[in-house]
Amino acid sequence: MTETVSGPSRGSAGAKSTGKARAKQTARGLTIDRIYTTPGVHPYDEVTWERRDVAQQNWQTGETVFEQKGVEFPEFWSLNASTIVTTKYFRGAVGTDAREWSLRQLIDRVVKSYRQAGEENGYFAGPDDAEVFEHELTWMLLHQVFSFNSPVWFNVGTKSPQQVSACFILSVDDSMESILNWYREEGMIFKGGSGAGLNLSRIRSSKELLSSGGTASGPVSFMRGADASAGTIKSGGATRRAAKMVVLDVDHPDVEEFIETKAREENKIRALRDAGFEMDLGGKDIVSVQYQNANNSVRVSDEFMHAVEKGEKFGLRARMTGEVIEEIDARELFGKMAKAAWECADPGIQYDGTINDWHTNPETGRITASNPCSEYMSLDNSSCNLASLNLLKFLNKDGSFDSETFAQAVELIITAMDISITFADFPTEKITETTRAYRQLGIGYANLGALLMASGLAYDSEAGRALAAAITSLMTGAAYKRSAELAGVVGPYEGFARNAEAHSRVMRKHAAASDALRTHFALDGDVQKVATRYWQQGNKIGENNGWRNAQASLLAPTGTIGFMMDCDTTGIEPDFSLVKFKKLVGGGSLQIVNHTVPEALRKLGYTEETVEAIVEYVAEKGNVVDAPGLKPEHYAVFDCAAGQPRAIEPMGHVRMMAAVQPFLSGAISKTVNMPESATVEEIEDVYLQGWKLGLKALAVYRDNCKVGQPLSDGSTRKSAKDKEAEKEVVVEYRPTRKRLPKSRPSRTTSFTVGGAKGYVTAGSYPDDGLGEVFLKLGKQGSTLAGVMDAFSIAISVALQYGVPLETYVQKFTNMRFEPSGLTDDPDVRMAQSVVDYIFRRLALDHLPFEKRSALGIHTAAERTQQLKTGEYAPVESDDDIEVESYRQSASVTPPDVVVRDTTPVEESTAKQAPAEAHTSAELLEAIQGTSTDAPLCFTCGTKMRPAGSCYVCEGCGSTSGCS
Fold first, then answer.
1. Assign residue 538 a region: left if phi > 0, alpha if psi is -120 to 50, beta otherwise?
2. Which helix or strand (DSSP H or E) is residue 924 part of?
3. Can you give the residue ranges of the Ribonucleotide reductase large subunit C-terminal domain (predicted)?
């Protein structure tokens, strides 16, 4: 079924305005002007509504876990979005009249509560402004321009406590009463559908004495009780499992034990698994493993990081007296952190110096911890409610970013977020006091990866980072400008007076970073100009009024709410893959290419015929490498977080985080994904560069470093009898070498790659199977020539032992190192290295068409034939005319030719998704034959995908995080 938007949905093209949408500060409240809505027309009347049946299955067991018929949603909402909203956010018992059945009911329940609280607390100049506020908020939620965090949808307007915050920071002191209270407070927060973090560094170490003369247990021992508690509590009832963060300062005497805690448990998991126990998450034996319900992070100081750089000693300090009780080698401890992260992805790292240098409330207390996903960092015993904007909604048809409308939307949303604090409930008295006194907010965004791709920008590029930074600066600048205006209407936050100087200093730091932002072209330059204006105006107002909010912005995972907004990408993340799994309203599913792919190709200037050919290739292969007509220099625009043969490099993720960090009050929920081949030293470098680049927090995940994967039901596991039978049957296979005869056919090919010349000689068996390869590169006797000789012998012997050539082609194509670049081979015009070229040439010469076509390797003549017929087929001729024809067809549109926007290509290339795929992660596995290292969803049994520093399920919206 084709889903079309009824009514405006993107950028200024759909915005209706009666004037500049600005809030005017008056003695009696804010005057709210219209952004999107029309006077006298309710937003609900502008869209076409339809009824749908929502059903959700566990794909592992076939069990129907949820069903509600006749729910009402706008026609342009995807089935996935409506399913997630119906299952997660509609309140009331299913099958009763109390159950919500329409998106209108859900939005009204929330928005009308915000309007009422705003009127009661003097936010609006009059009833007309309150109505405009209600209609604008309704329009933006209806059209998926933004979303509040999940607790708002769970709780606001219901009989439940009005908990609106997703993120909490607790505190614990060195007393048993405080420790037991920590357990209780965490449990209440998990029950309400949120997550919490805290720093355990106040607790005495196991190397210190108690007042009674005994030895203290240490914080790691108390983590066991909290971990067990979290493992038994599901957030929000059956919504999701508990999310928590545990932080320990690097100068704590138990820091080494803390660092190695989860790595030791991972080794235990491996040992028990090998012994036959069920160690998958959800298996009956996994409960014997500890510390699995929390993310762990080490809080490092600048002093420690300097000691790491210089290879110096660093002192661990007693908690009670502050005296140094032990000196350790800083670099050695840093290496242990990286090694533990290499083994099990924990601990992450938090940079204390940077965090507190950007702290607006240092007179009240230091920032010591974060929420579970590391994006909210503020005072102990505080909370933060979040909201995220869908960036793709502000991309105009002409390719520009609608900065003015974006800023106006931010101002309205931040007003609503502040209003929520007036009626919100909180789990503890201390959190209530701190949140009401400091009013921390966390506005952010999603779909950055899709926005960059649609703009023709690579995620890992200077231009991509500049645009992301400019948008982030504008978002925070607009949020704080409105916060300053609110301070003039309803007063600054209670803690502002004692922190006024520090708050103003941080505002100036943000503004200076925005001024220093280096732009690359008109797109990001225009956004930066608007951001600069907002910072100047906002800081001027703030100097007079103060600010209403101690914190304003951060970048959350946007897992569930990202799907609610039909976002292609979550938070700050790049696209997960170029192909997507799409469920249809009438049943069934499709495998489609992201709509941002053809948008990006048109932006880059490709003809419509070439766009269609590339999109069809992507639909088949799942990547753009060797796509017909696509220039290799444009490959990077389509690089994703997952997939082969290209994925964004780890430092590409770090550089993007560093680009936007100076423009955020809080931090960024993001995990730096690293390949399984990554080394401990590479993780050390990522952690070190994160500090140097000014990040506040960083976490890494190396593929396949964890053993446990969640199972949705025991029926998927093997019985003990089956396992025993497997153990009894042991079959050992040994390869035998088939040597080449003394006389054998061979073929020698000369080549040039990036100016380097060489020769490859390939010898075959008489029955035409490749049996040896000899490479000549570099002068005889040189190191390079010797290495290539050894490489040739190793490959030749392996071929004679039966290793298939296609295995080597899979492993060595797309390997990148110098020399690389243009070749003199018409079939392989570009090579990323000599090895990449050699194995592409060997595939073309020695693999049958079907095998090399499956690997995406074709001759120039075959690619020309594909452009003519739409299908790849073997072509015998290597005629120069055909090669030249291919080159001409691959050229981009001349600058003076206008490419018209036509019907989305995805409709013509969509096809039935493989039966084994139920999410995009599983679809990518089916297409590329690779394994996506992500857990299975506890609710529906499908494979999840990364969202920030947690995971989210495309099928049902379940998330392991806290947003």
1. alpha
2. helix 920-928
3. 165-701
